[in-house]
Amino acid sequence: MVFALTAILVASVIATPAFAQSPILVSTDMPSYNDGDTIMVSGTVSDLLSGYQISIQIFEPEFGNIVYINQFGVGSDKTYSHQLTAGGPGWFSAGEYKVVVTYGTENRVAETTFDFSGSSTTPKGKSIDVEGFLVGYKITGGNVVSITPDVDSKSLIIVITTTSDGELTITLPRALIDAVLENGDDDEFFVLVDLEESDFDETKTSTDRTLTIQFPQGAEEIEIIGTFVIPEFGAIAALILAVAIISIIVVSAKTRLSLIPRY
Predict the structure, then answer these.
(1) How much is the pLDDT for 127?
(2) DSSP strand pairing (105-116 vs 66-72)
(3) DSSP assigned state of 61
(4) Can you say whether the dihedral through the CA atoms of 202, 150, 147, 196 is positive or negative?
(5) Domain boundaries, the chain
(6) What CATH number was assigned to the domain covering residues 18-116?
(7) pLDDT at 256
(8) pTM for the predicted model, two decimal places
(9) Within a 10 A sphere around the Cβ of 5, how many other Cβ atoms?
């Protein structure tokens, strides 16, 4: 009987599959965070891949938008860690945020989640992509139709439709538009509602500025003027300019060659 039980036990151990180590693991140092808290993301990888870094993305719960993206290296001991601040553009909603890390290939991916209490400096509302920047806004008494950079006037043109007197609260990333003095200090924005100067309230962080603007029923356009705005289609325009210059050089070279007499 003893030998029979031992044989069964050994057979069951041998038959049990050995589970391979996951290629990448991830976790956060705490299960929940408030606006402005430091988030520490860390984990391990099963093996080191030459030339690859950890890619991290964080998704907000309401619309599934990416609110944070970055890359960083892995240590020689196959561990990694990355620090970021909770809050900022896009971090409007309170709820469960998802962290996704990838290392090398698509099958080397891991996920975790944490709870976020919501941002105290940016409004809970909608968001719109402006030249690759996520601009969050909340509006009452109307809707935002579009947001377009105007390079000549160093401003953002916000087209709206209204149903009543209302209010627009909009969070502007400083990398998209800003108003600064020559010494680097903050300057005031200049806001026009249908070409009429309008007062506004503002809160600031090191990465963005949030404006609250009143507008009357029937308003169609809000313009926020600063000292800098990213060019509309800046990268595309630069590419087109480069192609045009190369084309001119090639055509000029061919023209000069055609004028050289052949003997």
Answers:
(1) 82
(2) unpaired
(3) T
(4) positive
(5) 18-116, 126-229
(6) 2.60.40.1930
(7) 57
(8) 0.47
(9) 9
